[in-house]
Amino acid sequence: MILPPGKNQLVLALGHEAAQGEADFMVCDGNQLAFDHIRAYPDWAAPMALLEGPAKSGKSHLALIWQSRAGAQIATPADVGRLAAEGSKVPVLIEDVDRAGYEEKALFHLLNQSMRDERPVLMTSRTPIAEWPFITNDLKSRARLAAWFSLTAPDDILLSQMFVKLFADRQLSVDPKVISYLVARMERSSEEVVALVELADTLALSGGRAITRAIAAEALTLRAAHHAAKSGTEG
Fold first, then answer.
1. Would you say domain 156-229 falls under CATH 3.40.720.10?
2. Which of 116, 150, 201, 210 is 20 to 30 Å from 168 at the Cα level?
């Protein structure tokens, strides 16, 4: 993390782990159906399910909840072919199916096996099936047989809950007024919450201060500069 002049004192990088259990998932209107479907396992009407949504929308958290419930194996581009060839009925989790570099033929065989042998498969994706980077329609046609759930952008309440959770993951207690200040002025995405929490924590540690409104304002200013610089580069 690069800090502005005067803020570059040595900061000890203390590790923190995000709480990823079922009780830690923040349910709202934009993810309720997906959450209910994950909790309904193994009583699924179809063996495949697909969670679609933007970055940091909760797909991976729900996927981990399902993996724990189902005892699922995690597929990677390197072993998806082996998982399909072994003919097992052990559930499989396929994260980032649209952008992780999965070999098309191997992925097709796994999805085909799921439908034929009722092998449970959960996929996550940022983009709709029509935009997946695969050449043939065979794989996409199989994927369209999955139970599909869209996770939408978070609202103010969920953003506030995310701030509380992520600060708590770092063992930080932050005044609700500071969180309201952040929510009212930030870019509207759960991914931005993650960035602001990390930045505010770093700023506070660098100055030996608590996370106050002043720290929040500083973090927002730095994030705005970051977005402006990124936009200028892309332009």
1. no
2. 150
